[in-house]
Amino acid sequence: MRRGLQTPLQLIEMNTLQTEHINRLKLQDALERGYCPHGHSSEANDLALLIYHLGGANLLYALNQRLHIPSLRTLCNKTCFVKLTPTISHITVNTIKENLQTIMLATRMNTGSTVTRCRGVSLMIDETAQEEAAVFMPKSNSVAGLCWTHSHGVNTSLNTYQAALNIVSTLKEGSVHLGKEVTDGFYPLLAAPTCKTEDVVDMEYIYNTVMDGWEQGGGGEYVDIWSFATDGDATRRKAGHKVFLQTKISITSPLYGLLANMPGLNLYTGNGYVMLNFNYKHIFKTQIYFRVLHTSAFMRRHVP
Ligand SMILES: [Zn+2]
């Protein structure tokens, strides 16, 4: 975060310049004490949320005292905050279970969502760019941000000064790396820093660990997993074929009669009838890429 480079008020001002969607006038009014929301409208709550994310709890407290912006407690009562547990060191079932409970199950219960067994979910895997940096995690007293595939070779706990020096030296040696991207999803069950060196076996491990964590964490009691969607990455797709195209639906299954003669569809699934799927965003991207490629090749060939 750039919190240390500018003051929180400068951050807010900078954000108003960059984002059209923010109500710039009211924000400026608030800074000049011309806007004092009392009824805690949705706009005031949005403003408080923005202040909290940009300047933290201290700035929100100061503006709450000075300008009657909704307090953090009010915000917590009206907004559903989720806390993602990032993966530190190797990916484990426990991390999946914890995130499943705090992010999906608890959130849906708090918002009054009805979760029924007749509804299914599709898990998706993708990567999001992240700032390459090691960060201190007070809750576990350890260092996060190291790639999950190699961080098992270093002690990430920060119990001594020497432990910090050891992490620095292993980073310099190259035996562990800072994560370039984070593997995640909409209800994020997993946020694991990756140095993008995973092979098919690593990906199979991720799929199986997520599925095991889902079942062990109680996800299966509320919602069935229908499919697991991968992005366009060839390694993830190959692992997806291995994990989710391994069992052919039995001829005695009621589904067999429905699906056996459908052209273009196969009868293979993973455990628990979980099917392999593809994130349509990446399919569209591939289509557009080929169309653009085809068009440019056509233009080169036929247009002088
Ligand atoms: Zn690595």
From TrEMBL:
<protein>
    <submittedName>
        <fullName>Uncharacterized protein</fullName>
    </submittedName>
</protein>
